[in-house]
Design brief:
The complex is a heterodimer. Chain A is α/β, with parallel strands linked by helices. Chain A is about 35% helix and about 25% strand. Chain A contains nine helices and ten strands. In chain A, the strands form two sheets. A six-stranded mixed sheet of chain A has the order 6-7-8-3-9-10, with helices on both faces. In chain A, strands 2-1-4-5 form a four-stranded antiparallel sheet, with helices on one face. The longest helix of chain A is centred in the C-terminal third of the chain and has 18 residues, at about 200-220. Chain A is globular and about 45 Å long. Chain A starts with a helix and ends with a strand. Chain B is an alpha+beta fold. Chain B has two domains: about 5-55 and about 280-415, no CATH class; about 100-235, no CATH class. Chain B has helices spanning about 5-15, 20-55, 85-95, 130-135, 150, 160-170, 210-215, 240-255, 275-315, 320-325, 330-365, 380-405, 410-415, and strands at about 60-65, 100-115, 120-130, 140-145, 155-160, 180, 185-190, 205-210, 230-235, 270, 370, 370-375. In chain B, strands 2-3-8-5-7-6 form a six-stranded mixed barrel, surrounded by four helices. A two-stranded antiparallel ribbon of chain B has the order 11-12. In chain B, a hairpin with a 2-residue loop joins strand 6 and strand 7 (about 185-190). The chains are: A alpha/beta, B alpha+beta. The interface between A and B is medium-sized, with 26 and 26 residues. Bound molecules: adenosine-5'-triphosphate and magnesium ion (MG). Adenosine-5'-triphosphate binds near residues 49, 70, 73 and 74 of chain A.
Chain lengths: ~250, ~425
Amino acid sequence: MEEVLLPPGAAARLWDKPRERELKNGKLIMIEMINITKTYHIGTIDVPALRGINCHIETGAIAAIVGPSGSGKSTLMNIIGCLDQPSSGQYHLDNIDIAGLSDDDLARIRNQKIGFVFQSYNLLHHADALTNVALPLLYGGVPDRNRQALQALEMVGLADRAHHKPTELSGGQQQRVAIARALVNNPSIILADEPTGSLDTHTSEEIMRIFTNLNKEKGITVIFITHEPDIARYAQKIIHIRDGMVDSDGEVII
Amino acid sequence: MNLTESIRTAFKGLIANKMRSALTMLGIVIGIAAVISLTSIGTGVQASITSQFESMGTNILTIRAGASSSSSGVRGAFGSASTLTLEDSEAIATSENAPAVLRVAPQMSTYSQIVSAESNISAQVIGTTPEYQLIYDLAVASGDFITEREIDARSRSCVLGSTIAATLFPDSEPVGQRVKLGTLQVTVVGVLEEQGGITSVDDSVIIPLTTMQARMTLGRTTSGTHNVQSIVVQAINADEMDAASEQVTAILREQHDILDPTGDSDDFSIINMADMLESLDEVMGILTVFLGLIAGISLIVGGIGIMNIMLVSVTERIREIGIRKAVGAKRRDILLQFLTESAILSLIGGFIGLLAGWLGSLLISNISISGQQIPAAISPDIVVISMAISVAIGLFFGVYPANKASRLNPIEALRHE
Ligand SMILES: Nc1ncnc2c1ncn2[C@@H]1O[C@H](COP(=O)(O)OP(=O)(O)OP(=O)(O)O)[C@@H](O)[C@H]1O
Ligand SMILES: [Mg+2]
């Protein structure tokens, strides 16, 4: 899989020191962060959004990130998702050292390893569901995109809405399209920033069930941000963030 | 992402914003249409004037009284001095020293009211000799041209140009009928076929030179010779024009007792049709380029329109760019998408402009201004060049917005509202 991911030169650079890390209980690590900081600069003012994050998330886990507004959850999520680079610290995603990768390398990782789900769905308005779902495949240079996109829509139960535009779909349906788009590439990890933030309780539970199914059936690691304790209960592990630092990080006992 | 895919993506993007795309294209459409129609009219007019001049004979010299340059002090207006005579014409025609000269026709002309039984018209009356018909290759539709006998007899006969004949005798055969040229009554002996061209004999009446000198104008100099206004000389072929010109000059200097070899004291001037054609062609070419330049300015304006709209489009679609980047679009993909969009816009715009310009020039060439049609000729060069220019404009003015779009940070783009 790694050979497919990066060009030969980059592969040599990224994989010269394989880090197949295991926890004591024998599980592999998907995400490992050591002392991650992120400081935004607004004019001459420094805004420290993350102030030394240390955490790990196992492969195949479902993890929730919770914390007060402005604590740095989204900032952390963006770094996990390779949408943004940390100001300092070490970050390994599926054994790849993310620090110092070029924009194009990051784009390739986002395309092939990561699926994103946003609170505001972030679908292309003028394109139908199928086209939206096929978008990552387009940039991945995958042939036969529509068939795979349709499969992904089937998985979220929206195959019959393939040619509907986002404006013709309910919020819950739009979010399911977004999930189909996130999973169409067979990613190792799905990241969801408040995926149920705009949905009612019933729809939220439906969405969360899709995530848990994907996790169980395909072994995809799922990380989501939420403000709702009910939703956080779907996670096996909850990471509490406060003021840009991990407050507590532990297994959930259901 | 390969090129076909980015073209497809670009098309989808353009179709999603039909109105905006159409308005952007409009600038290019107008620009290209202007370039095509103006240059095609330019080249068309040039070609038609050239061919008209050529049909008037590229091997014809016209000698006029009076000097062409004012280098030797103040002179009368061009052709005003009555120094050219029938005797000069005969001297050229009969001289042994003019081997390059094929035919010679002296000529006078005046304007007169021409009245027939049915109608009347004001037209040019040309007095000349039978050689005139041969020099200008005038075909006769009915009757005959003026003959040598009529010249000798100063007979009251005339030949009508086709337009004049149709005006004066709309319902009857003109040959044999009488018309009045001012006070002079003449009989129509022939009607010319339609000639076309810019200085056409279609609108003229031709009578024997001698008749005109004797009965219409004060055709005598103080010394008793016969004045003519001009002498038309046909060289044996277009290559002998310069030789003919030199020979004619020598003969006329001898006739007029001019010893000065510099030409400054010449009391006549020779107009060479080939030279005129050449300089006319040059002027027309410049005119066409000039028209093209004016149209080119509108193309640039169209290009700036594209840049403007593409910039707006980038701002409008920042979120879309963010989404595309989040799912794995690289800088190059975004760059290519926006560049292809503007290239497609200008290419389609260019194509529509091409059609519009072509239709426009057809339309204009159908309108006739004072009986003269403006011909249009679309040259393939202009088609290729304008299409290339429109794509180049699309790419050139698309680069800046496209580059701007491709550099956007995915997070900031996604956060954009
Ligand atoms: N682009 C930015 N420029 C400057 N400061 C930023 C930027 N993005 C985030 N911040 C700051 O970083 C801090 C963390 O923001 P973040 O969006 O990560 O919070 P959050 O935990 O996701 O909050 P919420 O629960 O409201 O979504 C905030 O103080 C915010 O003001
Ligand atoms: Mg947030």
